[in-house]
Structures are given as structure tokens and as C-alpha cells.
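Same chain as my last thread, 465 residues:
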Amino acid sequence: MSDEDSFDNFNKANKSYHEILNRKTFKDKLADAYNKQADSIGRPMNKGQANTQALLRGFAVGLSNDYEREAKLAELEEQCKQMGMLQRELTMAAAQNKMKKEKQMAFFNENQVALGQLSEYIYAGKHNEVDILAPEVLKSYGDITGAKVGKFSHYKNGYATFLDDKGEPRTVNIKNLMQPVMDMLPEEQKKNYRGFLTPLQNADIDRMVKEQSLKMEKLQADIDSSKAHSEVYKMQAEELKNNIARPPMTESQKILFKANVDNNQEYLKEAGKKNVTNLALVQTLNELEEMIIESAKKGQVGSDISAIRKRGWDKYITGDNKEMTLVDMAKATYFGRIKEAGGSNPSTTEFLTALSTMPNTDKNLSANLRIINKDRDNALKSILKFNKIEQNLRAREYQGSPYDPAVHGFSDDEYNNFRKENNKNKVVVIRTAKLGTPLAEPEVVEISADELENYIADGFEIYYE
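reply #2:
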């Protein structure tokens, strides 16, 4: 019985009890008779009639007062009031719980592919890959569900560490974090997210898979045994086996529908791996851009004698080489993450050749910014394209082709907005002259770092205290 049914039954019982308590007794009827007799006197004409009328009404009032019944009615009223408050509380709690589940399912629907990939990495114990993919997924979890998880820091042995608004670390069991989402999935679907399941749940899935395998083995054995009886039975068994492997579909559209679903889900799974690489590349390029700009403020960027001397002085004499060191580390990660995600092992020659074309402090600042913008734009376009394909195929129940412009296409405005969301670095620039003419007041502007190359070409310089 639901809570709502329980409250309805309680209200009906209270109503019946209230009617019983208010049912007129013999004393009530006698009091009515006294009042009626007093009313019949009308307006008293003398003192005797007034006394008689007062006496009759006094008897009526005395008979009407039933303190026991009043106490029971007061108790019943208090119970109804408390039950009403409890009903409101339960209704609000049910609504909040429903909203929470709807948000968790919305998060799952928006991140199915990424969750599957992250689950694989967790289940396989690939901590580095988890650190690359988890920030985006867990940020989406916080944005959609409203949970204040904080900023993802790192993952280790089943635990994710987040930083709160004050920069304080907080460690959470990632399986516990995702458990409410996993609880909403059918058992058959849970096996695709084993990295988020508890040991007991994984054991249940192993048992389920084993049972299915045993059933198929038994069925296969029965089929194989029946083959020995006759050629006719052999044909029947073969037909049964084919029906089990490929359930008969009477409509050609259903066959095509199933094929499209399988093909497109497989495409998204493979494309999702490349998307992880692009997400990591954008993050690294943003970090690289920030460090190169900081190095440029110190005069450490460029191929001229002044920059070369400054790099050497800061590296070997003053030790002011934090940004230069981070640039060197970032460019190695830039190449390493791509190769790692691609599953290939580059030779020393390939590695050095690739590094020579990557942004670094020994190259001109504008050239560095151009390379970063070009590589980041390519990666962002690929990411947006994947997002569009995933979104549109899911909306179409995986019908259509990922190569159809209607599925993967996006407008210039969509890309420009997406680009702004992913280019977070800011820089302040200054210009003291325009077209060779000194300005009355220096022009100081804060711009997005990806626009810095154009501003430098227009006569601006990086401004720093």
C-alpha cells in the first residue's frame, strides 16, 4: 500500500469517527427539547416567565456540555493536524527524490559514451587515462545534478580526490559517487559500466553471464545431440540454432533498424577514444599557452640574442625558470598523450621531429601562438563534431549516418561559442602608439589569449607590472 493510500484510509476513518462522536445522544435531544420549550415562551411578560425561561435554558446548557466528547474531538483534531504535516513532508521528500533521480538520469543520458570509457579505464586500473577523462565527466556530474563535488584533482585505487572552493582536498570513493546512477540501470546494462560497480555487483554480473553461457552451452549440446537422430531433425535443430542467434524479423525495416543501432554504437565507442585524446590535447595546449605568455612577460621567449641570453641567465643563474620548465614538460605531454591514446610507440627520430615543430620558448611568440591556435582549433572542431554526432544519433535512436552533415554539422556561431567556452586564458596588452603616432594615453585592454597574435600584429605588447 502506498503512502497516499494510507493517508486516504486514515482520513476516511477520521471522518467516520468524527460523525460518530457528533451523533446526537439522549442528552442532546433532551437539551434540544428544553431549548425549544424556552423558545416557546417568547419574550417574558413577567418575572415568573423570565425565571422559567432561564431555568429551561440552564438545563439545556448543562445537558449539552460533554467534556469527554470534546476531549476526544480535540485529540482527533490534533491527530489530523499532525498527519497533514507528515503528509506534506512525505510529498516534498518524494518530489525531491524524483527530481534527484531525473537529474541523475539526465547526466547518464548526456555522458553514456564517456561514462563507458571511464568505467573501462577504472576497471582496468589505468590511472593516467582516468585522470585525463574524469575531469570532464565529473564536472558534468556536478553541473547537471547540482552536487558540489569540487574540482577534480586526481584518481588512485578507486578514490577520486577533489578540491573544494578553499583548495582543501576531499577524497571520495568513485563507486559510491556513481552508485545512485548505476542503481537506475537495468541489470543487463550495468555490465557495460563495471568500473563503477561494487565487488558484489560485479560478482552478480559474472554469475549472470556464466548462467547465460551455461544455458547456451546446454542448448548447443541439445542441438548437437539431436543432430544424430536424423537428417530431418538435423535441419530443425539448425533452424532453432539460427533463430536463437538471429531472432526472426518479419519486417525488413526492423532488420535495418537493428543494423543501424549496432553500427552507430560501435562507431561512437571508437570515436569516443579519439575524443578523449582531443580533450587532453586542448587542456595541454591551454596550459602551454599560459606558460609561454608568462615566460614572454619575463623576456624568455624568442630566438633573438636578448631572449637567448635571458633564458640562460634565468635558468642557470637566478633560477627563475618555472614557466620555461613547465613549457618543456607540457610539450612532451603534448606529444606523449597523443601517442598514448593512439596506441603507437614512436621512434626517437619521430619523437624529436615532432618536438621540433611544437611550441617552445626558443621560437617567436607569434609563431608559438599561431601553432597553438591552429592545433587547438582542429581539436575543438573534432570535439564539437563528436558531440553533435553523439547527440543527434541518440535523439534519432541511432538511426542515420555519422557522416551525414545533418548529423555531424554545426554552424559558425555554434563553433565560436564552443571555442570561447574552452579558451579560458586571459592576458592584458598595452599600446602606446598607433601607426607610428604616439597616443595621448596608453591603450590597455584585457583580451582572450587566443587573440594575442592579432593584437601583437596591431602594435600591442604584453602588459605586466
